[in-house]
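Figure-free illustration: sequence to structure, shown twice.
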Amino acid sequence: MSTLEIWADVYKQYWRINFLTALEYRANFLVWFGFTFIYHATALAALWIILREFPVMNGWTFGEMAFLYSLWMLAHALNNTLFLTVGDVPEHVREGEIDRLFIRPLNPLFQVLTTPQQIFPDELVLAILLFILATIWSNPIIDIWFVIFVPLVVIGGALIDFSINLMIATCAFWFVKVDALRWVAFQLEQEFTRYPISIYTKGVRLVLTFLLPYAFMNYFPATFFLDKTEDALHFPPQIGLLSPLVGLATFAVAYSFWRVGLNHYESVGH
């Protein structure tokens, strides 16, 4: 059996266990599904209330803001579906469980990402439904470029989200506990991706573009798809199509940092 076949078989078993676990603990799954639905519905309701009083926010209508939010939600949900377990790295470091990653004949990061949890793609399904509704509300030009680039932008956005989480998790090799750092990044992502970055100060726009490139998850692509003027940093709208490349570049940096962290790791001796 080739290495690729082994990886594919492990990944298939990982999802089989996830589905069986979700079926076994139905009540817990339903609570999480309900919470996810309420969380995103509340965020959209808040946008609707704001834009009912002020129909346009810096040139963006409610339909366009919903499209912006749904693009972010698609990428974020894809990240949560495929890469959520990277957030467990600090716990693995504290418990000394990283040691076992070195004695198995598989890539350590792949092992982290295939540690069974109760993961189910419910948020991704909700994100797809919201994206369909938001597309109807915002009426973008749907052509061949839209069909090709929306999936690529979503994959690029998921890579950006995952890469930032991976870099934070890697810091656990030096500091062990990184809860505060994770909370800060989580709050930044949740708060600053709901609105066009053009409403923030120039410093925040630069951070969200170059340091923590969350703007490539939704703002720049939405500007292109909705044929709007990019007035945050005055880039050409086509910059939104670079999201897949930005995702790959961010992942390359994050994975290199992860390799440095692994080399720095010292067992806690459990």
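We now fold a second protein in the same way, so the two outputs can be compared directly.
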Amino acid sequence: MVALFVVLTFLFFILIDLLVLKAQGKEHPAFAVKVFDKRFFFPTKAILSTGHLWLQKAQNGFYKLGIDEFILKALGKFHLVPLKAEGESVNKGEPILQAVFGNRTITFRAPVDGSIRFLNKNINQKPVDDPYGDDWALMMEPKSDLSLSTAFLKKGNDAIKWLHDEFNRFKDFVAAKAGEPELAGVTLQDGGNIVEGVIRSFDDNTIKEFEEQFL
């Protein structure tokens, strides 16, 4: 009887947690897809662009857009600055967001054609630390249907596989650039995992290369 009470209590708190997260528009980690070592998740309903931006349809019919967790791992904490104002149109490939870390920046390009409907003003004064939750960047109205996966937009298992390949490609990139012994200790942890914010260890030219190769 006591065991049954404990189980029911446990289930009750899980249910409360799920209801709170649903009200906040978030997804419980237990139902997200594990990507790497329990550290990387990608929302199962989101669409991932090959420029490391995600889109997910909101209740108002527009699409939220933000950066993926890969970028958070590479850069560490940073501020996101929208490069378009509410009401402006944007074409695929046009600069749409900038990540600012210290006196450095990298630029993200629009994954689709569309128009900017809302900016998330909550990110103005705080660094990004919840990329799939509160720290989305903007809402846009795409010109075309995003329901189908393309070479640039990936969903479900395709998105997970692509993220996994990107992470491995990034590890190779870091290993190739960290030829200097003094950098070896700050780029790779024991077991070969990337240290969060590792890209900050490199010079401006390498950060530019990172932007060109991964964004």
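Summary for the second example: The chain has a mean pLDDT of 82.
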